[in-house]
Amino acid sequence: MTSTPTRLILATRNAGKVTELRAILSDAGLPHELVGADAYPEIPDVKETGVTFAENALLKAHALAQATGYPAIADDSGLCVDVLNGAPGIFSARWAGAHGDDKANLDLLLAQLGDIGDEHRAAHFACAAALALPDGTERVVEGRLLGTLRHVPAGTGGFGYDPILQPLGDTRTCAELSAPEKNAISHRGHAFRGLVPVIRDLLG
What we know:
Elements: E1 7-10, H1 15-27, E2 33-36, H2 53-68, E3 72-81, H3 102-112, E4 122-132, E5 138-149, E6 165-167, H4 179-185, H5 187-203
Helix pairs in contact: 1-5
């Protein structure tokens, strides 16, 4: 058992992710201060060279923990399509070639699935959230959001593949949900909330 730290580092420069995890920690009654990677601009981003979401999350978490001396949290996520044997998976953000071109990624995936009927369009968003301590201790929690893929994008919220994934039990895509609705069921929300007992166990 380590002594209670005052700070946790989240390996992201996305302010929305930091806000989301802060709220989860606060709701759980955890006292730790959470900051994003932008609090350490001198530390370069880590290349995601792993072949699974968990490996990529651990790479980022360990790098930040070693560089800062504080426990670090990182996540990696993507869309996994059953009929494509889990692809795009870890390549979700660069499925069409250029990293982060949401429209190109979406258009390519829809083209690849053009002849696939509704009964074979099952897919899920997956997220691995990792906690790494400076002493090398590590834990990983995974979360999923199950759904089916639409033939045509719908909604203007969210990002990435949100306009085509319709969560099970809903009639809307993730891009048609409000932010609170999406956070309540999202793969990242499930994974981050799953880290709460891990943080409590390892850090107090």
